[in-house]
Amino acid sequence: MGGKLRSEALIDGGHVFNASHMFTGIAPGGATLFHIKTPPLDNLGRQVVLDFQAGYNTLSTLELLEEPTLSGDGTAVTPRNMNRNVPDDTDVEVYHTPGVTVAGTQILYTIIQAASVATLPSGAYDADREWVLKPDTSYLLRVTELAGIASEGALVALFRKAVVN
C-alpha cells in the first residue's frame, strides 16, 4: 500500500501533505497537468520527497517531468496535512493546468491501463516509490489520454520534507 511516505508515524507526526485534483471533460488525446514547485533547502537541509497516484478511466500515459518551461503556474491547489490536527502549513507549491512551453526532462514514463469491469472501476497508477526532488525546482506530473475518447481522472501528490543523504 505504498512507500514510506504513507507510514503511520510520519502521518501521525504531521509531516505528510496531500494535494489532489479531479479533472473532468478531458478531450480525446488531451493531457492533465500537476505543477509542483519545490522550495530551496531550508536551514535543516530538508528536501521534498514525493509519492503520487493517478486514477483515470481510459488508457493513458503518466510522466514525471523535471524543469519544464512554463508560461504560467496554473491554478493553485491547497496541500492538506494528512494529520488534520496539524495546520496545513507547507512551502511546497502545487498547481493544476499550468501553461507549458517546454515539457522538461522526462524522468518517469508509464502506462495507466484502461478500466476493467472485472478489476477496478477505473484505471489507476500508484507510484509505490518515493522520489527525492531537487530543491528550488519545478516538476510536472502529466497524464495523456490515449484511447481517443473523452475521459476523467484524478492526480494525487503526497509529499514530505526530509534530510536525504
Q: Could you name the CATH class?
A: Mainly Beta
Oligomeric form of this entry? single chain
Give the CATH topology.
Jelly Rolls
For the biggest sheet, the summary is: 6 strands, antiparallel
Number of domains: 1
The proportion of residues in beta strands is over 45%
Poorly predicted regions? 116-121
From the N-terminal CA to the C-terminal CA, the straight-line distance is: 25 Å
CATH architectural group: Sandwich
The chain-level structural class is mainly beta
Gyration radius (Cα, Å) is 16 Å
Mean pLDDT comes to: 87
| Series of secondary-structure elements, N-terminal to C-terminal | HEEEEEEEEEEEEEE
Q: Total number of helical segments? A: 1
**CA-based shape:** globular
Provide a descriptive summary of the structure in words.
There is one protein chain. The protein is mostly beta strands. The protein has one domain (4-163): GOLD domain (Jelly Rolls, Sandwich). Helix content is 3%, strand content 53%. It contains one helix and 14 strands, in the order αββββββββββββββ. It has one helix at 8-12; strands at residues 17-26, 31-37, 46-56, 60-66, 69-72, 75-77, 80-81, 93-96, 99-102, 105-112, 123-126, 131-132, 138-145, 151-163. Strands 1, 3, 7, 11, 12 and 14 form a six-stranded antiparallel β-sheet that branches. The radius of gyration is 16 Å and the shape is globular. The model is unreliable at 116-121 (pLDDT under 50).
